[in-house]
Write a structure and sequence with these properties.
Two copies of one chain form a homodimer. In chain A, 50% of the residues lie in helices and 5% in strands. With 153 residues, chain A is mostly helical. Bound molecules: FE2/S2 (inorganic) cluster (2 copies). Chain A binds a DNA duplex (30 and 30 nucleotides) through α3.
DNA sequence: TTAAATTTGATTGGATTGGTCAAGATTCAC
DNA sequence: GTGAATCTTGACCAATCCAATCAAATTTAA
């Protein structure tokens, strides 16, 4: 998996939306300022997130965006798949975006068997992490910045 | 991590080289035929692998390529880093190819803490797998194709 | 009505990717 | 030495993707 800037922006924007109460909307400008994201680009991205069903918007002078579901039910894997496509490092081991590759015999490809493990490791993490986790971590990091990013000790 | 076709070809070529005895060379044409890789493109790739020190070549009529070290001491992570760059999904969590991103405060970025876990999962796998493992798996798969790719049961 | 906001889609410049090609250098068999 | 088979080097190309910008349309609150 590789996260392009587009996807990075999207997840950061979702974090901001997840941090604010579900019943009021947040303006693009606010997100753009807080997260240091080019505004025009962010418009495009939020629009994609809307058509994908992750957020909803209100237009007009008191307009803005909010999450359209509870943050706990938006797995990062779903968001990334919508914006970037497959999680797997190669198409031949992707569950949702399978693509044949040029190998003469896929069922005997050693590389494929290795890449499948990589895919599973990535998918396992990202399927179980949600926007709610991002919000939780943001809160924790606000108190105790960085700490080597250790969540495992 | 994302493996481009270039990287896929490289690893498949290395598998072929790893499968043949260390003291004799394999021609580009042979690899190209066996693995179904465009020959001209493969020339380019093997050349990169040579300058990176993974393989060495003999020219002339009895020329070809061979691994320049034991297959056990060529971790897949090293190969991929040379050909594709970082393993990490985003620059800000990469060990060898760190790049700052636009986040206002990296040390309090929730997304970063998540992506670090993804990076570690990927790196852990790929640092510990070598070309020798590819060869081993290729052998196993030749006998028992696919089997759902299960190495864990 | 009007100002402020999102919506939509076109467009751009630059980088990356997958791949080809030609000319040269090296080695070995004869 | 000649020639054939091979690697070496680096230029080249077309297509696609990426980050970002822009303009115009639409919606809504006040
Ligand atoms: S089948 Fe995809 S790399 Fe071999
Ligand atoms: S610091 Fe890289 S995504 Fe926030």
């Amino acid at each position: 998996m590789k996260l392009s800037v587009r996807g990075e922006y999207a997840l950061r924007a979702l974090t901001v939306l997840g941090e604010s109460p579900r019943d009021c909307v947040v303006r693009i400008q606010t997100i753009s300022d807080r997260e240091n994201i080019p505004k025009r680009f962010l418009e495009q991205i939020l629009n994609e997130l809307r058509t994908a069903g992750f957020v909803e918007s209100r237009r007009g002078i008191a307009g803005g965006y909010r999450l359209s579901r509870a943050p706990e039910s938006i797995p990062l894997a779903a968001v990334i798949r919508h914006l970037e496509g497959k999680l797997a490092p190669v198409g031949c081991v992707s569950e949702k975006f399978y693509e044949r590759c040029s190998c003469p015999d896929e069922s005997r490809c050693a590389l494929r068997s290795v890449m499948k493990e990589v895919r599973d490791a990535i998918a396992n993490l990202l399927e179980n992490l949600t926007v709610a986790d991002l919000v939780k971590r943001a809160g924790a990091l606000r108190v105790k910045p960085d700490m080597g990013l250790d969540y495992s000790i």
